[in-house]
Write a structure and sequence with these properties.
By secondary structure, this protein is an alpha/beta fold. The chain has 2 domains: 200 residues, Rossmann fold, CATH 3.40.50.620; 105 residues, no CATH class. It is 36% helix and 17% strand. It contains 12 helices and 12 strands. Helix 2 links the parallel strand 2 and strand 3. Helix 4 crosses helix 5. The longest helix is centred in the first third of the chain and has 19 residues. The chain starts with 14 loop residues before the first strand and ends with a strand. Bound molecules: iron/sulfur cluster. The site of iron/sulfur cluster has 9 residues, from helix 4.
């Protein structure tokens, strides 16, 4: 990364930890710190709620291009405490954005300590996001994370109070940028000017907690089972399949294709697994405390999505651990109005 035109003696040996999400803004913040002559260590936190698989690859490609080391950390278990009970509440879906920012910055602060770095940088932009990037929210994240002025937002730094590197005289005010608001024009122009191509397109929808189907399923799970009763695999299962709430104590998850069927089979422990020995059909899971009549209803529901002929009986294999039984049921008609009533998140 080419350096900006200024004296670098003041920043020699000074180190920043850059919180990298795979998005454009954090990539630019990292690139700017490098251009100013700081040593940078990248950190990416995997929470388990990212949409898409490519973000880690993108962060990896970015840090390789910039020539900075990357720390990839799995914080999935710890992050669940944020999702279960956010101090500052949820946004429009089940996104605890303020608590999430505090958590991320706090984790980056731990990396800063371990790496012997001097401050943390993020790609936050003043006024870009309604819940987590207005001025009061930025101040709150700095305070709640415990980082205070060791938290630096290079893209909006000129518009914000002086932070540690500025107070120490390592940088001048005008070294930071003065980007604010929702437009990405300046960021895209800078990316092109600095030759940065490795970032996830700023299209939103990168977080499961922001998506309606996931939020509906999560709210249902919190209501019926209680947030503290949900383990990491429960949160993960909410991603896959069609979900149907038959009663407060019984839920059915039906795979939508072969890939999902294979994934659902992996969630078998502690659940009833339904499959079709005689016709092509989905794998389905039953959660909760189903009575015999609930299992039969679940089998009829799953059969609706099999290749069984409408109105003709079909065999459904029901397995729980080592116990296996077979039920012969009539598939529910595809226009059964209960289907829409039971469905979660579609
Ligand atoms: S959208 Fe998701 S990842 Fe982004 S700040 Fe909100 S909760 Fe965190």
């Amino acid at each position: 990364m080419e350096r900006a035109h200024r004296s670098y003696d003041t920043v020699m040996g000074k180190k920043a930890v850059a919180l990298l999400s795979g998005g454009l803004d954090s990539a630019l913040a990292c690139a700017l710190a490098l251009r100013l002559g700081f040593e940078v260590v990248g950190v990416n936190l995997a929470t388990g709620f990212c949409v898409g698989q490519g973000r880690c690859d993108t962060v990896l490609a970015l840090t390789q291009r910039l020539g900075v080391p990357l720390r990839l950390l799995d914080v999935g278990e710890e992050f669940l405490t944020v999702v279960r009970a956010p101090k500052f509440g949820y946004g429009s879906a089940m996104n605890p954005c303020l608590d999430c920012r505090v958590f991320m910055v706090r984790e980056a602060g731990k990396v800063m300590e371990r790496e012997g770095a001097d401050f943390v940088i993020t790609g936050e932009v003043l006024g870009q996001r309604p819940m987590s990037q207005h001025r009061r929210a930025l101040d709150l994240v700095a305070a709640e994370s415990g980082l205070g002025d060791r938290l630096v937002r290079p893209l909006s730094g000129r518009l914000l109070p002086a932070t540690f590197p500025e107070r120490m005289g390592w940088v001048r005010r005008e070294d930071w940028l003065d980007i604010q608001g929702r437009s990405r024009k300046r960021q895209l122009a800078l990316a092109s000017q600095w030759g940065l191509t490795e970032f996830v397109q700023p299209s939103g929808g990168c977080c499961l907690l922001l998506t309606r189907p996931y939020a509906v399923r999560l709210r249902d799970a919190f209501t019926t089972r209680g947030a503290d009763a949900l383990g990491r695999d429960d949160f993960a299962l909410l991603r896959f399949g069609r979900h149907f709430r038959l009663s407060p104590t019984v839920k059915v998850v039906v795979g939508r294709d072969e890939g999902e069927n294979a994934v659902l089979a992996g969630f078998a422990p502690g659940r009833w697994v339904l499959s079709f020995p005689d016709v092509p059909g989905p794998v389905a899971l039953v959660e909760g405390e189903p009575a015999a009549c609930d299992l039969e209803l679940a089998a009829r529901l799953a059969a609706r999505y099999s290749d069984a002929r409408p109105g003709e009986p079909v065999t459904v294999r029901v397995r729980y651990g080592n116990n296996v039984q077979e039920l012969t049921v009539l598939p529910l008609p595809s226009d059964d109005p209960q289907l829409a009533r039971w469905r979660l998140g579609e």
